[in-house]
Write a structure and sequence with these properties.
With 162 residues, the protein is mainly β. The protein folds into two domains: 101 residues, Jelly Rolls; 33 residues, no CATH class. Helix content is 9%, strand content 52%. The chain has one helix and ten strands. The strands form two sheets. Strands 3, 4, 5, 6, 7, 8, 9 and 10 form an eight-stranded antiparallel β-sheet that branches. The chain has a two-stranded antiparallel sheet with strand order 1-2. Strand 7 and strand 8 form a beta hairpin. The two termini are 31 Å apart.
Length: 162
């Protein structure tokens, strides 16, 4: 990342990072037990992580091959280059190519067939335990009432809360 902007929000220091440097790829070998055909070579670049460690974003790319992938976290991916044929547990298949977006919930799996190459932008999130989801719902209820922890009314965010 090339530049850093610091700002204050609710008595917390935060840093906004941005940049346009080329990816600094690291090897990201696919679990050998998951590989079904060829020898796919994968690389990754970590882009960001949330302060609480539950969310992160990555560039990921892979050469030709066929392999299974098991998701232990939620992943939303957006294909930047190339394509992949995804085969799901129910037997259905879907060709995904540049411009397409796919969501894999934690616990899902897919068989990936990469004919030539694929590059994706991945947003990964570790799901919260149900007790924390309940606490978050209560806090969001208070937020909808329009009161922040500092006693001031909350402003409208960029994205709606669910």
């Amino acid at each position: 990342m090339a530049s850093i902007i610091e700002c204050r929000y609710m008595k917390t220091e935060v840093t906004i990072q941005y940049g346009n440097t080329p990816p600094a790829w690291s090897p990201c070998p696919i679990n050998p037990d998951w590989i079904l055909e060829k020898n796919p070579v994968a690389r990754i670049e970590h882009l960001s992580s949330s302060a609480d460690g539950t969310a992160s974003s990555y560039y990921w790319e892979c050469t030709a091959g066929r392999f299974n992938w098991y998701y232990s976290f939620d992943e939303t991916l957006h294909v930047l280059e190339g394509s992949v044929l995804l085969k799901f547990r129910d037997g259905t298949s879907h060709q995904v190519s540049a411009g397409d977006t796919v969501f894999f919930p934690a616990g899902s799996a897919a068989e990936w067939t990469v004919d030539k190459y694929i590059r994706k932008l991945a947003f990964c999130r570790t799901p919260l335990p149900s007790v924390l989801i309940s606490v978050r719902s209560i806090l969001r209820w208070f937020k909808r009432l329009g009161v922040r922890g500092n006693g001031k009314r909350a402003g409208q965010g960029m994205f709606p809360t669910q």
